[in-house]
Design brief:
By secondary structure, the chain is mostly loops. The chain folds into two domains: 1-58, no CATH class; 73-107, no CATH class. It contains three helices and two strands; from the N terminus they run ββααα. A two-stranded antiparallel sheet has the order 1-2. The longest helix is centred in the last third of the chain and has 7 residues, at 92-98. Residues 10-20 have low confidence and may be disordered.
Length: 107
């Protein structure tokens, strides 16, 4: 794009662009730690759909910013806090979960 100096190899503005941000050397190695496509297994080594320089990342970290204090229209508690799912507002079920009381196993 002559106006923005953005160079895309496949789709304009897509995740498969040839920019320095996507072509970091750590994303081109066979020893990079990665998560399996299905499940929760953390592995190591090449997986084309996970960490290929032209592939799409499967997970992202996001930052959630509070839009307004409290509940709807800024009145009352935020709903997750009201339900007991936020720190310092834990309900009994959340306290049991944090203490590991929902897991039973052989000792």
């Amino acid at each position: 794009n002559p106006r923005t100096n953005y160079q895309a190899m496949f789709r304009t503005g897509g995740h498969q662009s040839c920019t320095r941000a996507w072509l970091r050397p750590t994303m081109q190695t066979d020893s990079f730690t990665r998560k399996e496509y299905f499940g929760q297994v953390i592995g190591r080594g090449f997986a084309a759909d996970v960490y290929c320089v032209l592939g799409a990342p499967k997970e992202s970290f996001v930052k959630v910013t509070r839009a307004e204090p409290g509940g709807a229209d800024g009145r009352g508690l935020w709903r997750p806090a009201q339900l007991g799912f936020r720190p310092t507002y834990e309900n009994d079920a959340m306290k049991r979960f944090l203490a590991g009381e929902y897991v039973k196993g052989a000792r």
